[in-house]
Each structure stands twice: as C-alpha cells, then as structure tokens.
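Dear Dr. H.,

I hope your travels went smoothly. While you were away I took the liberty of generating a structure for the chain from your last submission, since the lab meeting agenda had it listed for discussion. I wanted you to have the full record in hand beforehand rather than looking at slides cold. The sequence, exactly as received, is reproduced here:
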Amino acid sequence: MAFDKTKRALRIVFMGTPDFAVAGLKKLVHADYHIVGVVTAPDKPAGRGRKLHQSAIKVFAEKKGLHLLQPANLKSEAFLTELKALSPNLQIVVAFRMLPKVIWQIPEYGTFNLHASLLPQYRGAAPINWAIINGEKKTGVTTFFIDSKIDTGEIILQKETAIENDESAGVLHDKLMDLGADLILETVELIARKQVTAQKQPTNDVLLPAPKIFREDCKIDWSLPTEAIYNFVRGLSPYPSAWSTIKNGEEEIVFKLFQTEMEESKHLYETGTIVKSTGVLKVATKDGFLHLTEMQLSGKRRMTIKEVLNGLKLENEAHMR
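The corresponding predicted structure, in token form, is as follows:
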C-alpha cells in the first residue's frame, strides 16, 4: 500500500509517437501510474487520399481518456504553458523528437528516454537497423536521463538480448519494444522509490553510430561479401527495405528485397550475375551466392520468389546493377 501511494505521487508526462512507444505507455497505465499528460506529433496527411493520420500514441491515449497534447512547435509559449500547468515531476520520452532544454529540465525527477541499443553504442535514429546491418550478435535497450546532446545522458538501466542469425529488423523491433516496455516500468519503479543510481556513459569505446537511413542508403552493393549483403537486407526489412535494379536486356527492373539465404561456394560468375533455375533465383557474389526468397517488384505486391518467377521473364545475360 505504501508503494501505491509513492506511485501515485509521480505526475508523469509521456512523450512518443509510434507503436514502439505505445508498449511502454500501456505498461504504465496498467500499473496504475498517474499519467497527467501525453505528448505526440500532430496529425499528418498520409496515403493517396492524404487523409489525416493519427499517431499510435494518440489512438491509445484517446482510448484511455488521457490528456493529449500535439504541439507543432515544442518551443512555443502556448505549449510550454500547457505543459507546465500539468505540474509533471517526471517525463518519459520514447521515439519522439529531440527536446529543447527548457522542456527536459522541467520535472523534479528529470526526463528519461528509452533507446533501442546498449548505449553508448548505436546512438542515433536507427539503432535496430544498424545493429543487424553490422552483424551484431547482441543488442538491447537502455533508459537514460536526457541531457543537451543526443543519446549521451547518464544510464539508468539496460537489458540485453541476442540477435538471431536470421532475425530481421522488424522482428527485432518487436522484441525490443516488449523488452523496452518492461525496462520503462522498472525505471519508473526505481524513481518512485528514489533508488536510482545513474551512471555516466563510457567514453573509451570505439563508438558505432546509428544515423537516420535514407532511400539512397538502401541500395545493395553486390560487390560486398555474401554475409554483408545478407545482413544489409535483413537489417532493412521490412522498412525502409533494401533495393536494387535488374538490368534485363533493354529493361531495368527496380525491386525491394526482404528476405534472402546465403550459399557459400566457389564459382566463376561475375559479381552481380543472376543465376536462375526452377523456383530459384540467386545472385553471384564475391564469395558465393545470395538466394532471393522474398521481394517486391516496382508496382507489385510483396511476393515469394516462386511467385515472382511465374511472371518475370529474365534474359540469359540479366544482372544486377
């Protein structure tokens, strides 16, 4: 009962946008913490009809009757006034925008962030993607107090998990979403009990960054080793997705690639050469072949390779560009 009173003494403002953030907010609501406000992005036009799209956090917050704020400008006086009126003593940030100091310094107990890596590694916007692209065998989630730089604040808690050899970014995202929700709850419990002992991030490591990924970054380089291309594809699957172009006679076919399999073998094919047989489409690499197993041709739906080959006629000299 004493702990329940301590829990209710916290006045939490939660900031986030996508599904990754909803999992943590849901945990806090179910644990009966006092959420005085939820901050998310404004509705934005999306799709062919340009209908206004609501963030996953907004949908959940409205369903639970939580007080919702959707500022276009985080530094506006109107938003700052409304936020301060909620009298938050703790703020939690998950997959949201970078906060100005005037906001993150408001609460008595600070503002903490959930990041999908084992900090200080993979600071930045795309830690899940880059961990897989770089062939990491483990990753995790970190809660840390926000400071004036990106993902550099003092670490509160971390949880580690393995990255399986065939795991895609989408699968790892969901795994870290659940792991992160648990870590948020554990972090808030420590803060409620005033038992937090945050630690400065190590500064002597060789740091691997996780910058935002743009479409031009997603083009496959077929000159890389087979395993590097395999990791690149699964690290971008299903989003933003690796892509390439097939030079098929006079035609150029752009496609997205979601799933592959590796084959280690010696051959005399030029790198990028497409080799096909019944139900099989593979590409020669410098040290083997990469089997294409799930892809999406431009203007088509996502398909298995057997479905693709049923409607795709490739010239004998077809190759990747």
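Two observations you may find useful: The radius of gyration is 23 Å. The chain has a mean pLDDT of 95.

With kind regards,
E. W.
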